[in-house]
Amino acid sequence: MAEHTVKAFDDDITRLRGLIAEMGGIAELAIAEAMQALLSGDEELGKAVVERDQKLDALESEVDAMAVRTLALRAPMADDLREIIAALKIAGVLERIGDYAKNIAKRVGKIEGRNRFEPLTLLPAMNEVAAEMVHDVLTAFAARDPVLAREVIERDAKVDAFYDSIFRNFVSYMVENPSTISSAAQLLFVARNIERIGDHATNVAEMVHFAALGTYPPDRN
Amino acid sequence: MVIQEKLSTEPKMRTRDVSIFYGDKKAVDSVSIDIPTEFVTAFIGPSGCGKSTFLRALNRMNDTIASARVDGRIELDGEDIYHSSMDVVQLRARVGMVFQKPNPFPKSIFENVAYGPRIHGLAEGRTELQEIVEKSLRRAGLWEEVKDRLEESGTALSGGQQQRLCIARAIAVQPEVILMDEPCSALDPIATAKIEELIDELRGRYAIVIVTHSMQQAARVSQRTAFFHLGRMVEYGHTSDIFTNPTEERTKDYITGRYG
Which sequence ranges are marked TM in the entry (chain A) (predicted)? Predict the structure, then answer.
């Protein structure tokens, strides 16, 4: 894209994009590490994920301030305006994704009998799909790529399918092993959190599409 | 590029393939646009793009420039305004103009507004003239500020008040179209806001066309926007679309500050 006549405007937008990328990196790491901590029972790692979430909150505030400042000073139009609005909303969504990862990390110490607990083995694959959605949607944001954004949106169905199958699985497991209900219920929440991460990655993808083309994807629901 | 859109009424003005020359130089190239009463239409574009020249052609203000020549057709209510049977004085009463710099006559506030209706024979007697003056000043949002000093000179008012006086003066002759050529560029933000508020109130009653260099102003006051570049109308559409998602690359570069 051509440069603005006012160079400082380009600097503002570059900085805003940088902040979003930084938030995305932290959110991705949080998703991966929360699952790792959950699987291995590493409470220290879980705690680290929870603590790092503050950084995401701080970055979100920074994006808010930066976006408001840019809106006020530059009165952006057209794709500039869309990009800044998208950045503002994406920052909010990434912060939420961080919260879900934090929520998963908080449950690390609440799972009993981890080594022979079958439901646990169902989660990593689901988590990976959601994590990849987050990763790819940030790539789409960086590249202003609406095609990749739509691909990410399509993948959400896979996460939802995972969730349904895991839900049924857990319920029958609980019926057969009532003593595990407490732990299994914790894992149901984890699955739910991952499902929400997928939804939020979809929201980001819609904003990337909007920023790039000025329209939402046709199948938005 | 011919613009046609479904309107509830016939457009007040219509131009078809209008080109304007200054000597050999083509300043406006084949512009076709409909100007309806229900919307405010904004013309935007960089300096020298032809938007003001085109605006002035809409009430034959270019007639005073010897080298200027207008090709194509400009209609007011379907009538060719460049036809030899058109009374230019009458035309300029029907299509009023407000300029960049407020230009009140060096006469009283009252006379500034009363002058037009008087020469056009719109008022019978002093009482009726007074009514027209009051109504016009009210409509221009100036009445409360000047009602007790109508005999003071129009030039003694502040810039913003002078501009509203000029709008009252244009309104007083019951125009159908009001052309505004950067009406706020000499005004402070408060006076600008008052003019913008006024434009909003006048919308629907008159077909209004505004030329402005302020993109934000065009976005605020207009419902349709035309972007001019190098004499051509590059894009015309709903103002909200033009400013959030323009179709043409040149429009986008201009409104986002990447032009040139």
Answer: none
